[in-house]
Structure formats: C-alpha cells, structure tokens
TrEMBL record:
The keyword Thylakoid does not apply. Pfam families: HrcA, WHD_HrcA. It comes from Pseudooceanicola nanhaiensis. GO terms for biological process: negative regulation of DNA-templated transcription. This is Heat-inducible transcription repressor HrcA. The keyword Transmembrane does not apply. Belongs to the HrcA family. Residues 114-335 form the Heat-inducible transcription repressor HrcA C-terminal domain. Negative regulator of class I heat shock genes (grpE-dnaK-dnaJ and groELS operons). Prevents heat-shock induction of these operons.
C-alpha cells in the first residue's frame, strides 16, 4: 500500500468528501474553493466553520494549500496525485469526441500524416497541447545505396518495400572510393530482401565476421558506418510531434507561468529528456498521468501530461499519444479521449502493416 492510499483510507467520510469537492471545484474553475461554497455542495448539512476545520486538517496532511491569506483552498501536487489515483471518476467517452477521433484517423494518407492530424485534433478537442510519438518505420527493405557527397560526407539511401524512401547523411571512413561504396551496397543488398532494419542488425554483424576476407576493409567500414545512422539512439528523439502550443500560452495566464510553459516547449523542441520520457511511457500499458515534478521534463512548467502508448499487431509498444495542460486538467474527460485514440491508432497501424 502506498503512503498516499494510506492517507486516503485514513480519512473519514466527511474529510474525504471535502477533499474531493475542493479538487473537483478547482479542476472545473481553476480557482480556490472556499468553505461557504462547500456548504452548498456537501451531501450533509455542515457549517462553514466545520468545513474550515476539515480543510485545515487536509492542509496539515499536505493535500490542500491556501494560495492567499483568508482564501479558499486548492489541491497540492500530492493532493492531485491522490485524487487521480483514488477518487477520479473517469467518464465514458463522449459521442462527439469519439466521432472526431474516428474521422481524424479515417482520413487518407500515410501514417505520419495521420499522426499529425491526430495531434492537431487532440489539442483542439482538449484545449491543451498534444504530444504524439510516431513509430519508427519498420517495413521490409528493398534496396540500399551509398552516394558520395565529398571526402567527409556520404548519403545512404534506403528504399522500403512499401515504396517509402529515406535518405540520411553520415561521415564515411576516410579514403572511400566509388568502388568501395558499390561493394558495400552490393554486400548489403544481397542480404536485406524481406528484412527490416531491426532484423538486419545481428545478420550484418555475423556476415561481416564470417566473410571478413571477402569484403574489402573500406567497404566493411562503409557498411558499419552507414548502418550506424539507422540504429543511433538519437533517432528516436526525432519522432515527436507537438501541436497546440498556443492553447497553453493564451488567456489570463500570469507572466511567470507563461515563461515556464515557454521553457517547457523549448525543451520539447530541442527533444531534451525525451528518451527518459519514452522509457516512462513505454513502461506499461494503459493511460498514465504525470503531474508536475513527477517527470523532470514537466517539473518547471507545473504542467500535467496524460499519455497512453499504442501497440502494433505483435503487442509491442511503438509510440504514444498524449495531452499536456495545466495541473487542473479535466482528467475525467481527457483520460478516455487519450485511451481511445491510442487504441484506435494502434489498430489502424496494425491493419496497414498486414495489408
């Protein structure tokens, strides 16, 4: 049992209801909730003085906070976490949200285009910002070619069986020649048919070791350097699609909060800490909620993230979709939106890969 669940279990019915109504009121309005407001909402008739005493006890437990003297209370980050884990009532997905997501996913085009539309739709529907982590392209490879661009630059061209072409620049071994580049390409093309980049990693290393005498030293280096750009862990950072920044920068947001939100998006655009974020997202199935400092990427901005991974036909996590917003997000509505979107995206990608 966690410390937070223990605290929640120890609350009596009145304290639990006061806590729940303060959090729900704050999530709805963004404003502190006072004792007089609660007297009209409580299921039993309770005086404002009694409610103030309960709120003081909840503040002592670290669940509520008073932002101003004589003001109402708002939940702390610990309080929000306890509410989300133990008291949040997740609604059924609303019909108009389902129709919007279905229409967005059903549009024609490639997976990247679909995910870009998903990001725009999520930010519009939730009035937050959206994060979409696109899957790596794992179609079988049809052809590889090396093209020299100078003494210290070369291009590797990868043609996939589904017609997609990717080009990446890398630094080749010193002294490469047109013949060594052709030999390297021929070596790879003899092995790659029907294989994905993931399939190739072990195969190439074993073949190079077994045929060391058959492949020129320079050609072998071209193979190793050229393939390295496809297996570089930095590549996964480039799969991030962010939409809806303006949603978090408008309205009556105080300047200090605006500065923190801008810093968050600057970090996102530089892909800072995305690797760590991906590991957290990919740690398990289902919707996950990160509140404020629970994730280093969002600690300074005070934002929350609702995110869910999506899977391919083999039940392997290949990406994620999520919504960023202030800590007073409408979690009850956004959780089912993110959950449904992730499941639908996974099904569509799986169906397309099986065609």
């Amino acid at each position: 049992m966690t410390e937070q669940s223990s605290i929640l279990d120890d609350l009596n019915d009145r304290s639990r209801e006061v806590f729940r109504r303060v959090v729900e009121g704050y999530l709805e309005s963004g404003e502190p909730v006072g004792s007089r407001t609660l007297t009209r909402l409580m299921s039993e008739k309770v005086s404002a003085a009694t409610i103030r005493n309960v709120m003081q006890d909840l503040e002592f437990l670290g669940l509520l906070n008073s932002p101003h003297v004589s003001a109402g209370r708002i939940p702390t980050q610990q309080g929000l976490r306890m509410f989300v884990d133990g008291l949040l009532e997740v609604r059924d997905l609303e019909a108009n949200d389902r129709e919007m997501i279905d229409a967005t996913v059903a549009g024609s085009g490639d997976v990247t285009g679909m995910l870009d539309r998903i990001g725009a739709a999520l930010s519009g529907a939730t009035r937050g910002a959206s994060l979409v982590l696109a899957p790596k392209h794992e179609a079988p490879i049809k052809h590889i070619e090396f093209v020299g661009l100078g003494h210290d630059r070369a291009l590797v061209v990868l043609v996939f069986a589904d017609g997609r072409v990717e080009n990446r620049i890398f630094t080749p071994p010193p002294g490469q020649t047109p013949s060594s580049m052709r030999e390297a390409a021929n070596f790879l093309n003899a092995l790659i048919e029907g294989k994905t980049i993931s399939d190739l990693r072990g195969v190439i290393q074993r073949e190079i070791a077994a045929r060391r005498q058959e492949i020129d030293v320079l050609a072998r280096a071209m193979v190793e350097d050229g393939l390295a750009v496809w297996t570089d862990t930095g590549d996964r950072h480039e799969r991030l699609i962010v939409r809806g920044r303006a949603n978090l920068l408008g309205g009556e947001t105080p300047q200090e909060d605006l500065d923190r939100i801008r810093e968050l998006f600057d970090d996102l655009e530089r892909k800072r800490d995305i690797a760590e974020f991906l590991e957290l997202t990919e740690a398990g199935e289902g919707v996950r909620i990160f509140i404020g400092s629970e994730n280093k990427l969002f600690s300074l901005s005070g934002s929350s993230l609702v995110v869910s991974p999506y899977m391919n036909a083999d039940r392997k996590i290949i990406g994620a979709v999520g919504v960023i917003g202030p800590t007073r997000l409408n979690y009850g509505r956004i959780v089912p939106i993110v959950d449904y979107t992730a499941q639908l995206v996974g099904r569509v990608i799986s169906d397309r890969s099986e065609r």
